Amino acid sequence: MTRCGLEVRRISALSLLAVALCAGCLNAGPEVQSVEASAGAASGSHAKTSEEKLSGTGGMPEATTIGASQIEGDLAGATDASSVIPFVAKPQASGGSGYDADTVLAVRYEVNEDYERAVIDLGTGLEPAGPVPEWNLVSQEGKGLQRVTLPSASATCVSDGEFGDGLLESFHVVRAPEGGMFMDIFTRETFLYRVVELEDPARLVVDFEPKGDLKAPLPAEGGDTVLVEPRPHASISDPLTVNGYSRNSEAANAITLIDSDGNILVRRIVLGNDRGHHTWGYFEATLDLPSLPKKGLLKVGTENGRDGSFEGVEIPVRTR
After folding, report:
1. Given 14, 166, 295, 296, which is the most exposed site by the fewest CB atoms within 10 A?
2. How far is residue 278's CA from residue 146's CA, in Å, rounded to a whole number?
3. Separation of alpha carbons 105 and 120, rounded Å
């Protein structure tokens, strides 16, 4: 049985966390586990997993074990290559070539003296790929979000995880609405970034340099829902666009706007685009508002039809 997991290395007395390489990650296979990797793993403790076992079908394993990433490529090459690349604040970037790599094998994390590094290991099926595939990047550095889209990706071995206690907070791998997958990286501060491509095996390296305080709260998270827009305390207008991703039952997301008196102004059920629960499924809805409350509450998540309980995200909003 192929083993999967988390490898902790020391590079210049700093920790490199390898997060979640699992054998049962193909799109047709069982549900992918969510792995939480923290700075505490550098001291030898095991990463926590939200799912310890996967139900195997078609020869897939019934259980996964946290172990080493299959990609053993030396990241010293990234340090040499990145030394001549400046950190930038560009809102968009792109690169790579071809569509051979179709799987996110693992996400690794490294802390350096002046910057933090996220490494995306890429594969063709479960084997490390050669060249880095086409990618594009959208950076919202003032909002603590960077989105890396991989149009050729159709499967992932890791769905989400936490980084350390520094600049990088967490990541989520999401099925993109236009095809492929994207990875959102949340940061605790604004940042500059630089990108390095390493081949044979394929790795996409993104370095982050802290710049200052955020201009907006990070996306709200609750239960199996991440609400990217709007952010907490945001000013809203008519129409209201709501987007994020979830791993809710049946991929159903209930979006409800309530005014300060508790009246429901609008309610909509919208489906995410990963009903197989292989990873996070993207959702988006544009709501026509009958009226605009000065203050209100936006709820996005799941509702229990039996007892009326709610699990998800609740954020305060206001009108412009």
Report:
1. 295
2. 22
3. 8
> What is the model's pTM?
0.80
Cis preceding linkage at 201, omega within 30 = yes
pLDDT above 80 for 114: yes
Beta strand 135-140 pairing with 225-229: unpaired
What end-to-end distance do the CA atoms of the chain give, in Å? 56
Which residue, among 19, 12, 14, has the nearest Cα to 38 in the 3D structure?
Answer: 19
In three-state secondary structure terms, 137 is: strand
Q: Tens digit of pLDDT for each residue in 154-182?
A: 999 999 999 999 999 999 999 999 999 99
The three-point CA angle 52-244-54 to 5° equals: 15
Are 67 and 46 in contact by the 8 Å Cβ rule? The answer is: no
Q: Which residue bears the tokens 């897939």?
A: 60
Element (H, E) at 77: helix 76-82
Instruction: Measure the CA dihedral 112/118/124/130, to 10°.
Output: -40
Domains of the chain: 8-212 (no CATH), 220-319 (2.60.40.1220)
Mean residue pLDDT of the chain comes to 80
Tokens at 192, concatenated: 């500059």
> Among 164, 168, 214, 213, which residue's Cα sits nearest to residue 187?
168
Q: Which residue has tokens 């040499």?
A: 80
Task: Find, among 161, 149, 165, the residue nearest to 210 by Cα.
Answer: 165
CB-based contact 223:238 (threshold 8 Å): no
Contact yes or no for 204/92 (Cβ under 8 A): no
What pLDDT is recorded for position 306? 79
State the pLDDT confidence band at 69, using cuts at 50, 70 and 90: low
